[in-house]
Amino acid sequence: MEQCKGLVGVYIHNLKDLAGEQSSKGANPFATFTIGGDQSKKLSSIVKAYDPPYSDSKAAYKHISDNLSGWIEEAVRIRTNN
């Protein structure tokens, strides 16, 4: 039986690392994976990667913290419907 677990991604480029530096945003990691071996159906078509709209580290972290549970619930709904 399938468990219908959702998958969600969050860009964390705006959070400071141990050195206090912020990295640049990378590519969507889900764009490199396919569904069922079908090269035309990318995992990124059903998995959202959220990008916090803030350049300030604390504001970006707060946005992620405030929204993560909703993003997870949405990912489960998307997975259930696919």
Descriptive notes:
With 82 residues, the chain is α+β, with helices and mostly antiparallel strands. The chain has one domain (9-81). It is 30% helix and 13% strand. The longest helix is centred in the last third of the chain and has 25 residues, at 57-81. The chain is flat. The two termini are 15 Å apart.
Observed structural traits:
82 residues, alpha+beta, two-stranded antiparallel ribbon, 1 helix
Low-confidence stretches: none
Number of helices: 1
Mean pLDDT: 88
Approximately how much helix is present in the residues? Answer: 25-40%
What is Rg?
Answer: 15 Å
Taking the alpha carbons of the first and last residues, their distance comes to: 15 Å
Assign the structural class, choosing from mainly alpha, mainly beta, alpha/beta, alpha+beta, or little secondary structure: alpha+beta
Q: How many domain modules?
A: 1
Order of helices and strands: EEEEH
Strand content: 5-15%
Largest sheet: 2 strands, parallel
Number of strands: 4
Order of adjacent strands in the largest pleated sheet = 1-4
Shape: flat
